């Protein structure tokens, strides 16, 4: 094995279960590291007897929670006020967008964290707004652990059953990940286009209003 698979396999062979946990913790902190490679590979390693199946699930879940907790703390340090300052400087983004997002997260934060742990791209990112909104640590850890456990069990067990064919899992997850990415891109495009159209209409109304005021002044 080479690349990420080779690196993950090497760390698991050297450190066993804690190595699998470390690899997944790093995957949470650096999303380009794919969990769909590391988790099935942990299952394959368990099928060879290098670590137990229960150990693979336990340590990868611990790694998921540890990585998510680091990002949660990062969100706490960042804080809602700094997010608003940043939003005010980003083109097409408004502070009101952050306010609406904050209100939505306060209502659905638990479900967002739980389900987000099972969605590529959002697996790591969902921990940051949870920290920004200072979601109760106990609830954050509970939802994160449960969501991570479901995700990890699915892929570790798949790798355990498939054995040397563990890599097949990646092909199916790639389709899922690309679907999520396309959906995110579509939402971003719709947001940008809508905001540009709204901004342009606002400028037109302002120009029309100024012209009407000018005409009224001239008539006087």
Layout of secondary structure:
Layout (H helix, E strand, L loop, with lengths): L2 H13 L1 H13 L5 H13 L5 H37 L5 H22 L5 H4 L1 H6 L4 H26 L5 H52 L1
Helix pairs in contact: 1-2, 1-3, 2-3, 2-4, 3-4, 3-8, 4-8, 5-8
Summarize the structure in short.
This protein is mainly α and 220 residues long.
Give me some keywords for this one.
220 residues; mainly alpha; 9 helices
Textual characterization of the structure:
- The protein is mostly helical and 220 residues long.
- The chain has 9 helices and no strands.
- Helix 1 crosses helix 3 and helix 2 runs antiparallel to helix 3.
- The longest helix is centred in the last third of the chain and has 52 residues.
- It is elongated, with a radius of gyration of 23 Å.
- The mean pLDDT is 82.
